[in-house]
Design goal:
The chain has seven helices and no strands. The N and C termini lie far apart (57 Å). It is mainly alpha-helical. The protein is globular and about 55 Å long. Helix 2 runs antiparallel to helix 7, helix 3 packs parallel to helix 6 and helix 4 runs parallel beside helix 6.
Length: 199
């Protein structure tokens, strides 16, 4: 909706197909986060850091691997995939790459919005969502008229960066924790070594 006023009708169809493909890949991220939600909620309620880290690892590692594999596939075969929808769609290859890169960023950020919700920070999630809508609108207005499909896709990538960055920052500030794959990998070894030391 925010893209259509800035993107001509001839470019809207390739952008729409690229967006749908990236959203199908992003659906894997969403499903994995939702499957892990009960374990995250239980660990949060019990304030069990080790269980929380284990649940976060399960909710971040698979989506990162899947989205990274999809990104590589888009880089090498994106034009062929889009070409299945028509010869004019292949031109959106690098737009598809940007949209899938946005899903990689989302996967790397982990289920930070879910953890904010578990911590009673629904208002903060709403504020982040509104801010990201603003980023999308400004990005489309500034980039899409000049760059076409690439500009529209770059705007989506900027939203993914803003969403992941703001969610991560607010999670650290409000709940003193993290949800990203980097956060999990940095903290899980320390917990395991500490457990071995106690034994």
């Amino acid at each position: 909706m925010l893209t259509s006023p800035f993107l001509g009708p001839e470019l809207l169809a390739p952008f729409g197909i690229a967006l749908k493909i990236s959203m199908l890949i992003g659906f894997i991220v969403q499903v994995t986060h939702q499957i892990s939600l009960p374990d995250l909620a239980d660990a949060h309620q019990r304030e069990n850091t080790e269980e929380m880290l284990d649940a976060l690892l399960r909710s971040t590692l698979l989506p990162v691997l899947v989205t990274a594999a999809a990104l590589i596939a888009a880089i090498f075969w994106g034009d062929q995939i889009l070409g299945l929808f028509g010869p004019d769609y292949a031109a959106a290859k690098w737009g598809l790459v940007l949209l899938i890169a946005a899903q990689v960023i989302r996967a790397l950020g982990g289920p930070a919005p879910l953890l904010l919700t578990l911590g009673g920070q629904q208002g903060m999630n709403a504020a982040i969502t509104l801010a990201c809508c603003g980023v999308l609108l400004v990005g489309n207005a500034a980039l899409t008229p000049r760059l076409g499909v690439l500009g529209a896709c770059l705007s989506v990538l900027l939203v993914a960066v803003a969403w992941a960055g703001l969610s991560t920052a607010m999670l650290a500030r409000r709940m003193k924790t993290g949800a990203s794959l980097l956060y999990v990998l940095r903290h899980i070894p320390a917990k395991k070594y500490a457990g071995r030391g106690r034994v």
